[in-house]
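Now for a concrete sample entry.
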Amino acid sequence: MDNNYKKIKLKFFTEENMEKISYLFFGVLTTIINIVVFWIMSSPLKINFMVANVIAWIISVIFAFITNKIFVFKSSTTKFMDLAKEAFSFFFFRVVTLFQDEITMIILVQFLGINGVIAKVISNIFVVISNYFASKLVIFRKKAD
């Protein structure tokens, strides 16, 4: 029994799974940052929910780039042009998912009357999934030697 547990544990903690686990961990932190900043901007500060959403997006995307590069996909690019390419593609895809986020927020808040923070949580589920595949398949993909 104990030996089977170790085999299952070792199979679970593969490099591929650890990438997904760390992406989820930092994704949750990024989402928390996004939602908290959105709440601060839209509730206590009474900033329009669309503007609050963009401010929250900017802060959380900067955090996400740093954590995805270093901890999730372990990108070791150090040359300026390679780093610039990574950053550009990361922010480009995040802008794409920002539009996804904004459209989802408009539909949920303005058309369906859902509370802004609840709508933000729902929207973030779709955004996190889209961002993972963009990061995994395009931005931080492993280069063939």
